[in-house]
Fold each of these.
Amino acid sequence: GAGVSQSPSNKVTEKGKDVELRCDPISGHTALYWYRQSLGQGLEFLIYFQGNSAPDKSGLPSDRFSAERTGGSVSTLTIQRTQQEDSAVYLCASSSRGDGRYYTQYFGPGTRLTVL
Amino acid sequence: SQQGEEDPQALSIQEGENATMNCSYKTSINNLQWYRQNSGRGLVHLILIRSNEREKHSGRLRVTLDTSKKSSSLLITASRAADTASYFCALANAGGTSYGKLTFGQGTILTVHP
């Protein structure tokens, strides 16, 4: 079946502009995650949605970052007033509850954001 | 920090050799997972080991977990050039409400020479 998809695959923007990144999770997956990966770095957790529960926003680096998940499916990560340090690959993942609390996350190909 | 620390940062071997990567962490975990990443884009899940397990196998992969030492290792046997990638360990916290949230290590860059 279809995997996690993300769009756009690449985004170049100017400092100060707003950007929206989209994630389409695997159908039926109740959990959705956003991570970002800066050049040569590991993955940094941003936000986690699980069903109808309040999202875990503990990883969002500033109030310029926000995310929503509509209808329990598609998610949009919005970065307002982008800064050069926001340049990174933004990765989305989804998972299903499966065996109790043990999750395997399936990742999309990512969106490479470059802020000039 | 719950972040896993991986060792070595980079590993270069010849095809056919075994590759071992290690991950250490500081707090209690629910499970530990290993992921692979090619060319800095999407990650692929390799294997998950639960906190009450000590060893798991999947094809040429062998993962061990020692919760007393708070460490895990990933062994790739009979490596191939196609195994060249970055490998990350990811920790799922024990307790709390965000069971699915993962904390990733910095990764090990594996290069397998033909």
Note: Strands of chain A lie at 5-7, 10-13, 19-24, 31-37, 43-50, 65-69, 75-79, 88-95, 106-107, 111-115.
Amino acid sequence: GDSVTQMEGPVTLSEEAFLTINCTYTATGYPSLFWYVQYPGEGLQLLLKATKADDKGSNKGFEATYRKETTSFHLEKGSVQVSDSAVYFCALNSGGSNYKLTFGKGTLLTVNP
Amino acid sequence: DSGVTQTPKHLITATGQRVTLRCSPRSGDLSVYWYQQSLDQGLQFLIQYYNGEERAKGNILERFSAQQFPDLHSELNLSSLELGDSALYFCASSDTGLGNIQYFGAGTRLSVL
């Protein structure tokens, strides 16, 4: 079945540091890939997505590239801010007759001033 | 604000009891998804409804059931509650014709004592 593996946290960085959160997946067919972010006490918000190989999703300075050859979708940001502190989830869906999301376990990011 | 409304925000109840969680999807969205977020299992898909009909089932216990009403709001019913059912329950909605993006509510935190 579908699965998502993302790097274990927590990750602690200083402001303006470079961020990478690794994500790899196993899926049948050609899944769509997502990064969601969960701020403390809130629901999940879509951060970015990519629907086919070599697509790059980007939003708010975050980027991730759909790499079919390595089944990866790593999240990167060049310079993190304190306000980026949150839990980040990598997710996929394989489409078909439903669009359920399969999530990784989440990575807690803390950015210190 | 995602446009998805979940009530109540918090629910505290005892083992053996039954509760109902409610979700109003974004205007125009026909699909509703329910997810459970717990510390040990992470985020898991429970069930999907599309325009009033069950579309897909995930790791949903037999003690749990859901339905989607003609006005498209959905309810998740949890019965014979156990301590292990304590979790955050999220509802998401989507228009499946728009790239699989799911919009999440803020969640209902269920505590079973």
Note: DSSP finds no helices and eleven strands in chain B.
